[in-house]
Design brief:
The complex is a heterodimer of chains A (272) and B (245). Chain A is of the alpha/beta class and 272 residues long. Chain A is 40% helix and 16% strand. Chain A has 13 helices and eight strands. Chain A has an eight-stranded mixed β-sheet, with helices on both faces. In chain A, a hairpin with a 6-residue loop joins strand 3 and strand 4. The longest helix of chain B is centred in the first third of the chain and has 14 residues. Chain B is elongated and about 70 Å long. The relative contact order of chain B is 0.09. In chain B, 19% of the residues lie in helices and 30% in strands. In chain B, strand 3, helix 3 and strand 4 form a beta-alpha-beta unit. The chains are: A alpha/beta (272), B alpha/beta (245). Chains A and B meet through helix 7 of A and loops of B. Chain A: Interacts with MinC and FtsZ. Chain A: It comes from Modicisalibacter luteus.
Chain lengths: 272, 245
């Protein structure tokens, strides 16, 4: 049976799709058979981040409505074995998602895969609720700013009440906090919430901290998940995150402000 | 629940209330039969018939039309004041309104409505059922964080939260509200008008504090008290916040 992980946040633009792609890639690189599903029907993005947009024929909605088989719709990743992508439909809207259809797909995928990563749309409406409904674990993506923290708090409330595990009284969904776009320098100046404040408000287990990094934007535009960029701090931070998801105890990195050396200031050595 | 605004400029404020009310359950629609029975009751217990407000329940009657005006006249002549009608078909509802009486939906339906409301709330927001045979005061303990968008209430008793109440969350109690953590959301105590109720928390950042309908917003709270462990009480319609020693 696969573990179903939802990557969610409430707020848009905090890095859900980037994180879902990076985490799924990281899991596959660790030898886990992984599929990542785009639940953002109508605003299909995951295929772009994964760099497979030119190979999309069928999508999630086609499978739900019986117009295509799961194996026809799933796209095999070119870079990593073990990794598959199930894209969302760009032409339909989220009403085309049905709870029974989603359950059927997740059941089928659970038999063949070790991990199913669900990339949730923003918001708390149908799409987001269906993406989280069948989850075993949740990665709640949060930026160091108050509105993002509040929306994550709202999502955590829904994870505790509007999921199958909650409704059937099973063990609750395992909640993990993933802080993205963390800039220690701006935190130091008081422009951003710091790590401790976010953790205190949300009071859930921290699974990773991804520093603000140029590598993320570059990776998105190239269609290569940032996990592949092992020279970048963000890529390394996602690898750490995946290791923690797999139960390893890895110390936190990239959360402390390092003063730039004179040389890097002179030559403008930006962060990679 | 009600919040009154600036006292000087308002003529009234709405407050929720649960008043004891006698329901007169009619099993006959015949005004004469009602008159006879009432006459007997008055002689048994005259103290009861002192312009007592009653709700006429017609749920057990199957007639689509009633001589409602005559039934009311019979009641009034025996010093009962019909204030509303419960149940009955549409014509009965219309004639109740025409007589200046209120109309309540049948009891069975009201229970169902309440149930559907509870189902739409997050699971945690449901008040815990009172164990049978105990006192009607039901305190409630909520373990864990109350998160943005959640509402946790103890309608009759005290609410105890073992955790924080985050911004955008709301905790309500007929009695006191205790928060063993940070209170960042809204807390309303004494929602049925209990002026003795208080709010207690370990760390005050509340968006709103309300006691028996009187409230203070975050902006009105002395900044020196923010982040402190405090108790909030009602003194002469004013919320006073004092540090807990």
């Amino acid at each position: 049976m696969a573990k179903i992980i939802v990557v969610t946040s409430g707020k848009g633009g905090v890095g859900k799709t980037t994180s879902a792609a990076a985490i799924a890639t990281g899991l596959a690189l660790r030898g886990k058979k992984t599929v990542v599903i785009d639940f953002d029907v109508g605003l299909r993005n995951l295929d772009l981040i994964m760099g497979c947009e030119r190979r999309v024929v069928y999508d999630l909605i086609n499978v739900i409505q019986g117009e295509a088989g799961l194996n026809q719709a799933m796209i095999r990743d070119k870079r990593v074995d073990n990794l598959h992508i199930l894209p969302a439909s760009q032409t339909r809207d989220k009403d085309a998602l049905s709870a029974e259809g989603v359950e059927k797909i997740l059941d089928a995928l659970s038999k063949d895969f070790d991990y199913v990563v669900c990339d949730s749309p923003a918001g708390i409406e149908r799409g987001a609720q269906l993406a989280m409904y069948y989850a075993d674990e949740a990665v709640v993506v949060t930026n160091p700013e108050v509105s993002s923290v509040r929306d994550s708090d709202r999502i955590l409330g829904l994870l505790g009440s509007k999921t199958r595990r909650a409704e059937q009284g099973q063990d609750p969904v395992k909640e993990h906090l993933l802080i993205t776009r963390y800039d220690p320098e701006r935190v130091n100046h008081g422009d951003m919430l710091n790590l401790e404040d976010i953790q205190e408000i949300l009071s859930i287990h921290l699974i990773g901290l991804i520093p603000e990094s140029e590598a993320v934007l570059r990776a998105s535009n190239q269609g290569v998940p940032v996990t592949h960029d092992q020279k970048s701090d963000a890529g390394q931070a996602y690898v750490d995150t995946v290791s923690r998801l797999l139960g390893e105890d890895i110390p936190l990195r990239f959360h402390e402000y390092q003063k730039k050396s004179l040389l890097s200031r002179v030559f403008g050595g930006g962060r990679r | 629940m009600s919040l009154n605004v600036d006292r000087a400029g308002t003529a009234f404020s709405f407050k929720g209330g649960m008043l004891p009310m006698t329901v007169m359950e009619l099993t006959s629609a015949d005004p004469e039969q009602i008159r006879e029975q009432l006459a007997g009751k008055v002689s048994q217990s005259p103290a009861f018939f002192q312009h007592t407000p009653v709700v006429l329940s017609v749920e057990k009657l199957s007639e689509p039309h009633l001589a409602l005006e005559r039934i009311c006249a019979v009641c009034r002549s025996h010093k009962l004041l019909p204030v509303a009608v419960r149940g009955g078909a549409d014509p009965i509802k219309q004639s109740a309104w025409a007589l200046g009486l209120g109309w309540f939906p049948p009891q069975e339906e009201r229970v169902r409505n309440l149930e559907s409301v509870s189902q739409s709330l997050p699971e945690e927001a449901l008040p815990s059922p009172a164990p049978a045979g105990t006192a009607p005061v039901t305190n409630r303990i909520h373990r864990g964080t109350v998160r943005s968008g959640q509402q946790v209430s103890a309608a009759e008793g005290d609410l105890i939260v073992l955790g924080s109440v985050n911004a955008g969350a709301e905790v309500l109690a007929g009695g006191n509200v205790h928060v063993y953590g940070a209170l960042r959301g809204r807390a309303l105590a004494g929602i049925h008008g209990d002026r003795e109720a208080g709010i207690f928390c370990h760390e005050l950042h509340a968006e709103l504090l309300s006691l028996a309908g009187n409230y203070k917003r975050l902006e009105d709270i002395d900044p020196q008290l923010l982040g402190k462990a405090v108790q909030v009480r009602l003194n002469d319609d004013q919320l006073t916040i004092a540090p807990l020693v």
